Amino acid sequence: MQTYTRTTIALAALLVSLAPIAQATADFASSAPVASAAAPAAAKPALTPYPSIKADEFKETDVWGRIRTGYAIPDIDNSLVGNHVKWYSTRPDYLARVSTRASRYMFHVVQELEKRGMPTELALLPIIESAFNPQAYSSADAAGMWQFVPGTGRDYDLKQNMFKDERRGVLASTDAALTYLQKLYVMFGDWQLALAAYNWGEGNVQRAIKKNQALGKPTDFESLAAHMPAETRNYVPKLQAVKNIVNNPAHYGVSLPVIDNQPYFTVIDKTSDIDLAIAAQLAELSEDEFKALNPQFNRPVITGGERTKILLPKENAEKFHVNLAQWGQALSTWTTHKITGARESIATLASRFGTTPEVIRQANNIPARTVLKAGSTILVPRTSATINSDIAEHVIDNAVMAFEAERVASKRGKKKMTNAQKVKAKVASIKSRMSRSSAKSKAPKRR
Fold first, then answer.
1. How far is CA 321 from CA 46, 267, 422, in A?
2. Which residue from 58, 125, 137, 193 lies 20 to 30 Å from 357 (Cα-Cα)?
3. Is the pLDDT confidence value at 28 over 70?
4. Between vectors from CA 279 to CA 270 and to CA 141, what angle results, nearest 5°?
C-alpha cells in the first residue's frame, strides 16, 4: 500500500479551486439552461461553501477515508434509511463485488468531485445507480454507471453512435454526471432535491415544489416525498444508508475492501483505428479487463479521432507503448461497407470479404434470422485496398444499421387454378363418383 501525499503547491492550487461553491456555480449557471417554474430565486437558500480541507486529510491511504472527510450533504434519518442500511449491511458479498468494481473508478470520481468543490459522498451514487457496473442497462434505456438515458446523454455531449456509447465511458460519463448534478444544485439550492431531480427529472421536482408552496408546506426532500414515486422516495435514503456504512463500517459489521488512494488508470490518446483485441494484447491485459476500463466501445474496432481515449493501468500503459513500438503490423483489421440493396446478403458479403457469415454477424451484433436493410453500414474485414485507411469521421458519426426478419421461402405447391379450371375439376370429380357408383351396383353380391 502506498501513502498518498501532495506537495504544498498542489495543495494550494486545490484550495484555490475549492472556493465557495456559490462563486463556482455562478460561473456555471451563466452557461447552463435556465430553470423554468422553479422556486423563486429569493426563496432559495444560500449556497454553502465547501468545507475547508486540511493538509493531513490527504494522507489517507484508502479512498473510503478520503470520501469520509468530504461529506457535506445534510443527513436524513428515517425508517427508509434504516431499511436500506439493513439491506446493504446484511449482504457482505454484494458489497464486496460492488467495491471490487468501484476500485477501478472511485479514485477518479473522488478527484473530480474535489476539483469542482462538490460533496464527496456523491462518489457513492453509482452504487445506487448501477452497482458501479459501466455496462449496466435499464429498461428505461439508461446506460452506464451513472445511468444516462439517450436524450440526457446527448444534452451533455455524450456521443452515441454505432462505434461507441459514451454514456458508458468512465471519463465522459463522470464529467457529464457531475456537470448535471451541479446544474441541479444551482437550480434547487439543495443537494437532496438535486439528487431527487437526477433520478426523477427536474420538471417533476419543480412541480412537487409548486404543490407544497400552494399548500403552504415546506419544500425540503422529506416534505416532498409524498409526491414522489417509490423509486425517488427511496433514492436519497439509499445513498444515506451507504454513506452511513462507509462512515463507520465496523458499527454495521461490514468490512470494506481497501481501495488505494492513488490513480488506478492512466489515459492514452489514440488518433488511429485499432482493434480492441490488439489494444488489449499490446497492453498485456485480458479483453475483459480492457473492456472494464473502456466499456464505451461497441464494436471490435476502436476508431481514432480527437476524443478517442484508452484507459489502462499505469504499468500496462508502459507495456502498451513498448509493444506498440515493436508491433510492425496493421493495428486494425476492420473497415466499413454500406449495403446498397437486397442482393448483398450476409452470406455474399462474407464470401466477398473472405470471412464467414458468423464473423460478420458477431462483429456487428446482427441477430440470427435477420437480414440487413439497404443503407445499413456494417463492419467487414479490411482488404488490400483499405489496409491503410482508417474509418472516416463522417462515417463514424452517421453510420446506421437496420435489419428485418428473414423471409421464409414459400413451399412449392400446386399452381393456383382459375375459376373455369375449378368448375371443370368439380364436374370431373362428380362424374368419377357417379361412374364408381354405377359400377358398384352391377357387381355380383357376395354371400
1. 50, 12, 79
2. 137
3. no
4. 80
Question: Is residue 254 very low, low, confident or very high in pLDDT (cuts 50, 70, 90)?
Answer: very high
Please report where in the chains the cell 468545507 appears, as a residue.
51
Predicted model pTM: 0.79
* Number of Cβ within a 10 Å radius of residue 161: 16
pLDDT tens digits along 69-79? 999 999 999 99
Q: What is the pLDDT of residue 177?
A: 98
Instruction: Count CA atoms within 13 Å of residue 208 on its CB side.
Output: 24
Placement of cell 454477424 in the chain:
361
Q: Which helix (H) or strand (E) holds 274?
A: strand 274-275
Count CB-CB contacts under 10 A for residue 404.
Answer: 9
Kindly state the average pLDDT of the residues 360-380. Answer: 95
**Does residue 344 carry a catalytic annotation?**
no
State the Cα–Cα distance between residues 170 and 153, nearest whole angstrom.
Answer: 13
Q: From residue 412, how far is each of 409, 415, 418, 422 by CA, in Å?
A: 9, 9, 18, 20
Nearest to 355 by CA among 369, 372, 335, 340: 335
Burial (0-12, 13-18, 19+ Cβ within 10 Å), 160:
middle
Among 129, 166, 202, 344, the active-site one is 129
Domains of the chain in sequence order: 8-252 (1.10.530.10), 266-325 (3.10.350), 334-436 (no CATH)
Q: What is the DSSP string of 85-120?
A: HHHHHT-HHHHHHHHHHHTTTHHHHHHHHHHHT--G
C-alpha cell at 113: 468531485
